[in-house]
Amino acid sequence: MTDDALHDHAIDAFIAAANADDPARRATLLSRALTGDVVFWGPLGRGVGRKAVEDFITEVVRGHPSGPTRMVRTTRVDAPGEWARFGWRYEDASGRSLLTGMDVVHVTVEGDIDEIVIFADPPE
Questions:
Q1: What residue stretches are annotated with the SnoaL-like domain (predicted)?
Q2: DSSP structural state of residue 111
């Protein structure tokens, strides 16, 4: 698998996990995308481990007061070496944008994300 394919695979599994309603499915997808000791820099601070990412998704992403939501990748994955970035949109069930952003991730040679940094803005 090429570096670009490894990055795409890990990032798409991470986004699928963010969109998974079933906690067991979410955990499986995160185990495919992230190292066990992933460092996660989100809007609420720093967390370490898949559980920190899973808790963020459960509480913030899936628990949004707007009801059902989803994360959509809005750009191609730009991956110079082991770092990658991608744009995303967080939207409600009607497609209304709730938040937009750009994430930067570090991907290991095995193709797992071991660091995530989230940059988010309210939609314009």
A1: 12-115
A2: S
pLDDT tens across 19-59, in order? 998 999 999 999 999 999 999 998 888 999 999 999 888 88
Strands (E) located in the chain: 34-42, 45-48, 69-73, 83-92, 97-107, 113-121
| Strand (E) or helix (H) holding 82 | none
**CATH code of the domain made up of 3-121:** 3.10.450.50
Q: Which residues contact 7 (CB under 8 A, 6 or more apart)?
A: 77, 79, 84, 105, 107, 111
Domain boundaries, the chain: 3-121
Helix (H) or strand (E) holding 4: helix 3-19
* Coil/strand/helix, residue 91: strand
* Burial class of residue 8 in the structure, from the number of CB atoms within 10 Å of its CB (0-12 exposed, 13-18 middle, 19+ buried): buried
Instruction: Render the burial of 33-66: b for 16+ CB within 10 Å, e for the rest.
Output: bbbeebbbebeeeebeebebbbebbeebbbeeee
**Cβ–Cβ contacts within 10 Å for residue 91, how many?**
19
